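ARCHIVE CARD
Drawer: 12
Card no.: 0347
Subject: one protein chain, sequence and derived structure
Cross-reference: see card 0346
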Amino acid sequence: MNNLKTYLITGGSSGIGLDIAEKLASEGKQVVTVSRERQKINRALKEKPHLKEKVDFLTGDVSDAQSINSIKEYLEKEYGVLHGLINSAGVISVGTLETLSAEEWQRMLDVNLTGPFLMTKTLLPLLKKANGASVINISSIAGLRPGTSIGYSVSKAGLDMLTRFLTANLGPYKIRVNSINPGLVRTNLHFDNNLFDNREDYEKMVEGARARHPVGRIGEPGDISSIVKFLLSEEASWISGSIIPVDGGVTQENGFLPEK
């Protein structure tokens, strides 16, 4: 065990989760990540080899109680306490009520909603030991207004309610709980979930989305990790139960206003 503050990030081998891991590790924090696929961990280490000595990359399934118990046992043995939990793992399949399969619906609920519930529930004893821990759920603006996937939107709306519920539940233990709701962020999420066949089609989608954002661009992982860093800090010690859209203003888009 060491005296560094310890943070666990699910989905920490790609996209937003990886950027959070890199930012916290650069500040000298002890960072542990959980990813379901070793292949993604290898990809992350290839992209950012400097993290090999700074981040403890674990494999595990956030939707599986037995896997999470194993993670807890490891954390207890190696670190003894958990100062922050960032639930960033997520999956998406596009589809409506008529087109989305029951299997894909269940997969999104399992990972996007049940995962954070199980992780927080199982790791609560370690979070209590920190005497001032923070839980951050990486949600989505799709949970605030319908998106392209009924399953994704419902799972993220549920995650926001979980945040609100846990705020009251865990407040007596000095544990703060908040949601960050990103808009469209440039990550591997769309490719890892087979939503695009090639980079050209993806860039066309990005260009169309860019025009709808008041700030004139889509998001980058750093736009989200900066908010995570703030919410974990003492400067945010009075913030709990917040649902925070970080979306370049796209949820405020008003089609009735004249174009420039």
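Annotation on reverse: The chain has a mean pLDDT of 92. The two ends are 58 Å apart (CA to CA).
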